[in-house]
Amino acid sequence: MADDLVARVGKAIDEMRPYLERSGADVRLVGVEDGIAHVIAEYGRGGYLLSNFSFVAGIERALMDKVPGLRGVAAVNLPPYSGVGWDNPSFSGRIVELDPKKMNGES
């Protein structure tokens, strides 16, 4: 079953390749583990981390629509969301009080 999933993900990426190339993007399948496709994702506009995350989210959506049984996509060349800590149970964020006077340059 795992080999079949690898083949189906690879085929889906190959079908997307012409569209990716038009925008200067590329996605290469590294492997599939526990239903998660591990890819190298390169968006045409390097250096914009949020654009890369958005790009990978779009790839994930497209692949999950095309490949039944796929649970997700992880870009191995981008920092994980866990680096931010959002998936950490102890993550609480912080409340930042915004002072409208300071925002408008007043003292």
CATH superfamily: Fe-S cluster assembly (FSCA)
The main sheet orders its strands as 1-2-3
Sum up the overall morphology in one term.
Answer: elongated
Structural class: alpha+beta
Explain this structure.
The protein has 107 residues and is an alpha+beta fold. The protein has a single domain (2-80), classed as Fe-S cluster assembly (FSCA) (GMP Synthetase, Chain A, domain 3, 2-Layer Sandwich), CATH 3.30.300.130. It contains three helices and three strands. The protein has helices spanning 2-22, 49-66, 100-103; strands at 26-33, 36-42, 72-75. The chain has a three-stranded mixed sheet with strand order 1-2-3, with helices on one face. The longest helix has 21 residues, at 2-22.
